[in-house]
Amino acid sequence: MKHINIVFKIILPLVIGLFLIAFISVYSNFYLLKKNITDKADERFEIVSKSLDSIIKQDTMLMLGLMEQLEKDQKIINFYKQNDRESLYNYLLSTYKSYNKRYDITHFYIHKINKQNFIRMHNKDKHSDFIDRATLGSASKNLKLSSGIEFGILHNLTLRVVLPWFVNGKLIGYIELGKEIDKLTPRLAKSASVDIIFSVKKELLSKENFEKWKNNNRNRHYETIKFYYIIDSTIDKIDEELEGHLDENGTHKYHAHDYVNNGDSRYFIHSKPFYDVNNKNVGNLYILIDIKEEYGFLYELLIDISIIMLILLAFLVIYYFKFLQKKEKELNEVYLEIQRVSITDGLTDIYNKRHYLNNAPYQINNCSRCQGYISFILIDVDEFKKYNDYYGHLKGDDVLIEIAKAMKAIFKRALDCSYRVGGEEFLVVTSSQDSENGYKMAEHLRKAIYNLSIEHKKHKENIITVSIGVCTKKSDNMTKIEELYDNADKALYESKNNGRNQVSVFKYDT
């Protein structure tokens, strides 16, 4: 009897088909997972690039705020006009130390009108030299704030912010603050969970200056390679393979999706040219993402699935989902933190003016849809300059922090947004169905700040008070933030003129 082997005819094609399906599935998933890591790496590269710009802008605005306080200090003005360098240094020393500790400010200068340095708070014994830098030159030429990254006399790459110093409308000099670039790196690396390397072209930095730099910054990691000096790195030891990648930029090669091994780590490496304030390429910024665990897992996964195809195919789907969910969560957390930092005032932890300009129109539109009343509540600290002059800027900062806390305690609805829009000027944008709500809440805030009983001997009340201007309007599509702000400012001016420590409401013509 002829034996019909049906099982063999069915099983063999089935086994071959399943093997081919499994083989294609394994390598398809391997390819997709690898591409996913690459895509996520690209997203993180983009986040880091934007973060660097955001950090530089944020630090520039921070230094501007500090300098705006300094330029109004009458003691600083008097010592400077009297050419009393010693007294000025002693007066500013604690302020500089505070800036250095709290904000990583490494450079603090005051220059004369002719760009001759009057004082270096970070180097007391060096002064009277003439400064030839682009940031100072731009501030001198345009009589406007100037900022950018450039070298100093020791070729330390520094974010510099220079403010023309006017007193009673007359230019008397320039105030300059700076932060060395390696002060930005830890924040940048931490915010996106990456490693960062900065390199500077050897032709721009003498070996002698590089050695001085290393000796003055022994807590940082520096190396010399063929075409570049490594001036900052979050990687402690750079091996030969990574060093070769870094030096390839000497031939103008920039990395996008290159892999490189360094010790026990495996990295995706991405690089971009780094430009100073003169738009001159001074070196390179390298962003490295350690993918050792992810890459090792892919190969392990490939081997395991090849051995136990059906079981690990199911496991792969589950793990793939969890893996992506975890990475997305990490990236969203990083993005949210970057967003929070970019819209928050660094001192008071409430929203900053930039966020006000972007967010207030949305508040007005939302209020319009509900046919409610939008209120702009403008708050100014009474006699704050006198307070700073008498108690010092650090005490003044503490006052601003306490006022911000009071605002957050009172204005805590989702419809309320508190902003710091100036040195001692705050703004609350709130909406309600009650046309009197803005005034009531403003009065509540004024009393709350009054009840803080913060001593102020240079104010007739002997305590800190605020003057408040309120503008409330039925919101519609034609309502503009400029109109509401200007009218609230007029009401604030009325409060100031009527004796301070009060709330005034802008009255629309009926």
Short description:
49% of the residues lie in helices and 22% in strands. With 510 residues, the protein is α+β, with helices and mostly antiparallel strands. The strands form 3 sheets. The chain has a 6-stranded antiparallel β-sheet with strand order 7-8-6-11-10-9, sandwiched between helices. A 6-stranded mixed β-sheet has the order 12-14-15-13-16-17, with helices on both faces. A 5-stranded antiparallel β-sheet has the order 2-1-5-4-3, sandwiched between helices.
Explain what you see:
The protein has 510 residues and is an alpha+beta fold. It has a domain at 351-505: 2-Layer Sandwich (Alpha-Beta Plaits), CATH 3.30.70.270. It is built from 14 helices and 17 strands. It has helices at 6-70, 74-81, 85-103, 134-142, 185-192, 207-216, 240-247, 292-307, 309-343, 353-369, 384-391, 393-410, 437-450, 481-497; strands at residues 107-111, 117-120, 146-150, 158-167, 170-180, 195-201, 223-224, 228-233, 258-262, 265-275, 281-290, 351-352, 373-381, 417-420, 425-432, 466-474, 503-505. The strands form 3 sheets. A 6-stranded antiparallel beta sheet has the order 7-8-6-11-10-9, sandwiched between helices. The protein has a 6-stranded mixed beta sheet with strand order 12-14-15-13-16-17, with helices on both faces. Strands 2-1-5-4-3 form a 5-stranded antiparallel beta sheet, with helices on both faces. A hairpin with a 5-residue loop joins strand 1 (107-111) and strand 2 (117-120). Helix 1 (6-70) runs antiparallel to helix 5, helix 1 runs antiparallel to helix 8 (292-307) and helix 2 (74-81) packs across helix 3. The longest helix is centred in the N-terminal third of the chain and has 65 residues, at 6-70. 34% of the residues are buried. Residues 1-11 and 250-255 have low confidence and may be disordered.
